[in-house]
Amino acid sequence: MVSVNQERTPRKRTYLLCPPEHFAVEYAINPWMDTDEPVDVELAVKQWESLRETLSRLGHTVHVLPPRAGLPDMVFAANGAFVVDGTAYGARFKHEQRAAEAAGHRDFYESSGWRFVAPSEVNEGEGDFAYLPRAYGGLILAGYGFRTEPAAHAEAQEMLNHPVVSLRLVDPRFYHLDTALAVLDDERVTYFPGAFSAAAQKVLAQLFPDAVLADEVDAFAFGLNLVSDGRHVVLNAEASGMAAKVAAAGYVPVPVDLSELKKGGGSVKCCVAELRH
Questions:
Q1: 52-65 pLDDT tens trace
Q2: In the chain, fewer beta carbons within 10 Å around the N or the C end?
Q3: Do residues 215 and 245 lie in contact, with contact meaning Cβ atoms separated by under 8 Å?
Q4: Strand order in the sheet with 227-228
Q5: Which domains does the chain have, with CATH numbers?
Q6: Looking at residues 188-216, what average pLDDT do you find?
Q7: Dihedral angle sign, alpha carbons of residues 68, 72, 73, 76
């Protein structure tokens, strides 16, 4: 059990974000999207700017991916690739509405000098992959059930040279792993058990006996769609219960309001891809 007084150590991170200049809800590919609900693009951009400024203020490097017209979900930059040890394993989106986003991400990684691996299997980047560098020698957690195909887990394992643990998601409201599980530091996670199959719950309990367990209220507030540097936990401002839980575990919650982007089915983590050298 973690002592509340334990000092958590932040580690400088490098992130990739994409501004929501073309954000809209023009189609519904997850249960959170409602095409009848209006979107305030100006507010979405303002909230995104606050997120970017927050990450920069915490000492992290933030790169900006140019948005492309006609791709309203490109703001959810986490879905474009999964980067470990300098290698970017590219995305291959399940839904045709998002397929063209992959090329924009590939252009960024290749022009920036990263080793880019084009995928053969359907996967949605960090939406369904999480990495813990100090857990079991470097462990990848991978979700499936709604977007990423299980075959992509094996492909990622081969491309990134780290073991992959597959976890089945069973609730369509938690269609990506990053809506149901988050990495708090290099070896600890937080997750909502109800989003996973019974078998996946057992695996998570065995691997992470000291995990911070979230409840349904936390999960519905997108409280698990967070970004942590090992000390500061940047999370959706609506998720006050989740903020209290991470604070009790010794972390420092940093709330940001992303209520407008939530209309697209994402929050903090969906907007942030981590670039791991």
A1: 999 999 999 999 99
A2: N
A3: no
A4: 227-228, 232-236, 252-256
A5: 14-274 (3.75.10.10)
A6: 98
A7: positive
Active site residue 153: no
Residue that the structure tokens 């700017």 belong to: 49
Active-site residue among 105, 176, 232, 271?
176
Rounded to whole angstroms, how far apart are CA atoms 49 and 261?
Answer: 12
Full-prediction pTM beyond 0.70? yes
Average model confidence (pLDDT) across the chain:
96
Calculate the dihedral angle through the C-alpha atoms of 246, 251, 257, 258, rounding to the nearest 10 degrees: -70
Q: How far apart, in whole angstroms, are the C-alpha atoms of residue 20 and residue 140?
A: 29
Q: Which is the catalytic residue, given 105, 232, 270, 271?
A: 270
Answer whether residue 170 shows pLDDT above 60: yes
Across the strands, what pairs with 130? 141
Phi-psi region of 265 (alpha: psi -120 to 50; beta: other; left: phi over 0): left
Annotation says 270 is catalytic? yes
The answer to whether the CB of 269 falls within 8 A of the CB of 235 is no
List Cα–Cα distances, 33 to 69, 73, 237, in angstroms: 19, 11, 19
